Amino acid sequence: MAKTALVTGILGQDGPYLAKLLLEKGYKVYGMMRRYSKPNYEHLDYLGITDKVDFVEGDLNDEASLINLVRNLRPEEVYNLAAQSFVGSSWDQAKLTAEINALGVLYLLNAIKFFSPTTKFYQASTSEMFGLGNTNGYQDEKTSFHPRSPYGISKVYAYWMTINFRESYGIFTCNGVLFNHESPLRGIQFVTRKISDGVARIKLGLSKELRLGNLESKRDWGFAGDYVEAMYLMLQQEKPDDYVVGTGVNHSVKEFVEEAFKVVGIDDWHKYVVVDPRFKRPAEVPDLKANAAKAKKILGWQPKISFPELVKLMVEADLKRYEAKK
Known about the structure:
Layout (H helix, E strand, L loop, with lengths): L3 E5 L5 H11 L3 E6 L8 H6 L6 E4 L5 H11 L3 E4 L13 H22 L4 E7 L23 H20 L3 E6 L2 E2 L8 H13 L6 E3 L5 E2 L2 E2 H11 L8 E3 L5 E2 H11 L9 E3 L17 H7 L7 H18 L2
Parallel strand pairs: 1-2, 1-4, 2-3, 4-5, 5-6, 6-11, 7-10, 8-13
Antiparallel strand pairs: 9-12
């Protein structure tokens, strides 16, 4: 009989990649989504799996809906990928961010505790929790948290609640502290997709400039399709634990811009890029870089897509999107 998995955030970036992986492994996949009048299946369509996922209604803001879902499905694995995940918006929507990212996780864990205690639970944690925390230039499982946004703060709450349910109730819960991971499915408001989309528009003559914030911020960028494999592997271990996942190499926003323009054959990118103060955050996180030694050793996980390959993949996908509209 097929194993069952409930994936929240099924319409986002990571949900479709994870669902595809689980389906390939023979799982029955339930994708949780809020009640939409017109749900957007674009990302699932992109991977060709829309008709293979069983969609169920639920909302991290509504504890009753989560209780009903867990009680009715009793899934063997739950992957909580749903979140208000745009860091920039978390200052303007701090309350909403806390309700979804922090309390929503508590509601989901309580549902598992009371109605399906053998369910294995994965929590999508984030490198933004580290903020200014640093260990010899890297962040790993022992690095202290110093979040610099309401988003990062809300995720720290969820991280510790996940551990608390593991230690207090013996539930199999794991935190995947994933560093920035991108793909052609990344939302347009995120800087990497903003760059790939903007460069595609400039190349095709649809735009003359690309407006960005801080070009000096450095991030450890990997491919989302690689990172969902680490999520899956965490729930296949004998013992639950928390893992940092990243490439161990970081690049500045400026380097991402340079690489993106290189893909379309434009060398002098400076004349197209405008630094706009409106896009700078109240508190910046200057430098994030993962030490994923534990994940590599215990999970046997390795990133497959390099930074230049990732940028090329995203820019070419956006070029195809615009060319298809002609």
